[in-house]
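Progress against Task 2.4 (sequence-to-structure conversion) is shown through the following example record, which the project officer requested during the mid-term review.
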Amino acid sequence: MEIKLNNLVILGGGTAGWLCAAVLAKRLQGSPVKVTLIESEDIGLIGVGEATIPPIRAALSFLGIDKGAICCRNERVIQVGYRIC
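Structure tokens generated for the chain above:
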């Protein structure tokens, strides 16, 4: 049985939710699938110490986003690595 997908919903925003939605929307461009992201207005930013590590470069490149512009505009850097002690 073939299942036709018309709508794809991402629940939750943040870095993971928005990046997931952006990559899926780009990958499904030209298809009939609609990508929607739903995030809570009641939940603010949660400072969990997330790091942007080197693999983000490939994702930004795929999306056509200039990593330099993002880093400069937001006063951020791409972390080279980390160690858990």
